[in-house]
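Hey all, quick one. A colleague (J.T.) asked me to put the magnesium ion job into the tracker so the inputs and the structure tokens live in one place instead of scattered across chat threads. No bug as far as I know, just bookkeeping. Sequence used:
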Amino acid sequence: MMDGDQARKLAGIRMLVLDVDGVLTDGGIIVHSDGTESKHFHVQDGHGIKLWHRAGGITAVVSGRTSGPTEYRARQLDIAHVLQGQLDKLPAVEGLLRQLGLGWEHAAVMGDDVLDIPIVRRAGFGVAVANAVSELKAEADFVTRHLGGHGAVREVIELILKSSGRWTALMERYER
Ligand SMILES: [Mg+2]
């Protein structure tokens, strides 16, 4: 059941800020001997991001690491803002918000580890995935039921869109 405080926070959200490893992926990184790597993304999260964009939402990914698969996956999902190699995520996200004319109250931030604490704490709606570290969960407005890389992003997108009534309109094209 959603309380009034949560509904009010969700109503202002215009941008999703997503950590990559452990949020968009399950945290596993397959490192090949030639230095390239593989990551495991979830297709329902991917389609959720497409639906979020169709509803007028903006998405950014912010990662402490730098990796080719992240760049490629972001492009596939039309994610406009890709911030990689950001060990200090607060100024990176703050700069992006300023550039877009948005404030922290417009941002839903999802994370899984201590690196995400500063941005989850500041976010209008701060989210920790189900398998996040306890230090991050303590700072979050919401902890997902789904694990990172297993539908947690989709869960939050649905939560935001359903709370504002936008989900029903998006589903119309799939009705028969
Ligand atoms: Mg992470």
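Adding what we noticed when we looked at it: The domain at 11-167 is CATH 3.40.50.1000 (Rossmann fold). The chain has one domain: 11-167.
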